[in-house]
Every structure is written in C-alpha cells, then in structure tokens.
Amino acid sequence: MLTTMRLRLLWLAAASLLSLGALAQTSEPPVLTPKQPKLPPGHERVVMLWPEGAPGALGKADVDEPRLFVYPARVSATERTALRSPRTGVIVLPGGAYRTLMMDKEGAAVAHWLSQRGVDAFVLQYRLGPRYHFPTPMLDGARAVRYVRSHAAELGVAPNKVGVWGFSAGGHLAGWLATIHDDGNPRSQDPIERVSDRPDFAILSYARLSMDPTIPRPTNLEALIGEHPSQQTMEMISIDRHVNQGTSPSFIFSTSADETVNSRTATAYYDALKRLNLPAELHIFERGAHGVGLGLGLQHVPELSELTVLVENWMQTHGWMEDRPDHL
Predict the structure, then answer these.
(1) pLDDT, tens digit, for every residue of 204-242?
(2) At 71, is the secondary structure helix, strand, or coil?
C-alpha cells in the first residue's frame, strides 16, 4: 500500500511535470538525446528493468532503457560454505548531476570493491535529464530495488539485505529511495511490483541531501527539475524534509572542501535522522574536493583512504558484510 507521504509526493510530482511541460513550450526545446553513458567495465551481465519498455519512455534507445549491470560477489568454494548465506546486495547509483553517469569511478570501481568483500553489486543506469525530469530517475531507482529483492532467491541475496550506495546526484537519488518508498502493490500482475522498494540501508557519498536556501549551492539540480523550479518543487526534492520513522539506516560521507555539494546538506540530513533517533553514521573530512569516489589512491588527501575502512566497519557492524580477513 502507498503511504500518505508517497501519495502526496507523487501528486506533487505530477504537478511539477505539468509545470515543466509548460516551461518547455515557452523556451528553447530541451536536448532529447543525451549521450549514452559509458558502460561500467567488468560486469558479468546486464538486466533490463522493464524488458517491454520503461514507463514514460520517450523512445527505445539505450538512454530510454534503465538497466542493472551485475557484479556477483567473489566468493570461493570454501567461503561459500563458511559464510552466512544468502548475501547482501547493493545497488550502486553513480553521480553526474542527473545529466550523465560516472560509470567508472562511481560505478564499476565501487561494484568491484563490494564484490571482493562478498557483496553482490548492481550498477544502475537510470534515465537522465534533460530528456527525463523528476520523478523518472526515482522510478528507475525504485524499480532496481524491487528487482533485486524480488529476485533474491535467484541471485543468492537476502531480501532483507538490499542496500543502495549513491554518489553526488546518485546520492540524492539514494536518499530519495531511503526516505520515500512503499510496500509494493500486492495486486500487481508484475511480480517485481509486488515487493517493497525500501532499501534496507543507504550509503550516501557527497550527496545533495537538502535544498535549504540558507545552504550555499552553485546549482539547483536543473537537469532533474528544470531551470525555473517552483518553491514547492524545491521542497519536494529536499531529502532532509522527508525523513520519517521508516527511513533507512544511513552512512553519510562528505568533505568540508567540497564546493559543489556543501557538507551542511549532510549534517542537515543527519540531524533529521537523529531527531527521530534513527540509525546513522556521519563522517565529514576536512580535505577533498567533490567527486573523490572511494577516496583511494589520492596522494594529496591520503586520509580519505580511511573511508572504505569506515564503510566496511559500518556494514559489518550491522551484518551487511562478512568479516573477511583476506579479500579476494
């Protein structure tokens, strides 16, 4: 069943889309053929989220077909017996300002890191602006969570261990999924739509989590909501405003030196979580520009190499990653 909050937000989204359509008629037409994102290297296979065509698709090109790139956990025969089963699955959401997708540093690299630690990873290619506006990327993200959960037995993944890890705009999308979700539609003829799209946890890396006007920002996620969004639309995509008792446990990472996404959006979201006494962990490093990925191999900010250690410890604490002394 849809929650009251989700129904309200979907209604507002429809109003927002009508507003964007009116704007399109009075300004230059948007570019409707964004560049195809680079494929993330090393994936085992590709899953089309809607094989018969995605809802609201404007065509049948690759950019119109959201998909998951699958990176199974690297588990040896010995480990398969020793480790608890089934495993955790994490959907990786690359950033790119909702205009492009950073499929290497914020996609494949993350998926490989997870798979080497016994976690199944799925890199999501979601639809982008200016061809697609809000809430289309959110629909793609929700479908990805439902897909992994509904195919848990086939994938060897626990249905209650499906998380998301988003970077920058992908972190904004991950935050949306963590706060706005439902239990699925039990009457749907599509078995994927019958299960919940709530992530069991969310990792948010330098994510835009608040649109508070008192927090400086160079952009307003224009590729997602258009060039002239209403105040209502701005509030609608401000993730910190939607935190509720059902919000997913969250690991939040940012840097004070980030001039693209102010670290105060991370603290705003953390504060919203703690007001409801929800599980959360926050790390804000002093140095490091926007887009550091996993923080590995950065000689000018070596302290960021601790980030993956912190993520690993947090996942192990909650039972979402096994303690494996020697990674494959």
Answers:
(1) 999 999 999 999 999 899 999 999 999 999 999 999 999
(2) strand
Structure tokens at 17: 């889309």
The reported pLDDT for the residue numbered 3 is 47
Whole-angstrom Cα Rg for the chain: 19
Q: In this structure, are residues 296 and 264 in contact, taking their beta carbons and an 8 Å threshold?
A: no
Question: Residue 21: phi, psi to the nearest 5?
Answer: -65, -40
Q: Which of 168, 161, 47 is nearest to 105 (CA)?
A: 168
The domain defined by 4-27+42-317 folds into Rossmann fold (3.40.50)
Average pLDDT of the residues of the chain: 89
State how far the Cα of 95 lies from the Cα of 268, in Å rounded to an integer: 20
Q: How far is CA 105 from CA 41, 47, 147, 164, in A?
A: 11, 21, 24, 16
Question: How far, CA to CA in Å, does 251 sit from each of 166, 204, 318?
Answer: 11, 6, 11
Cα separation, 172 vs 225, in Å, equals: 13
Report the percentage of the chain scoring pLDDT > 90: 80
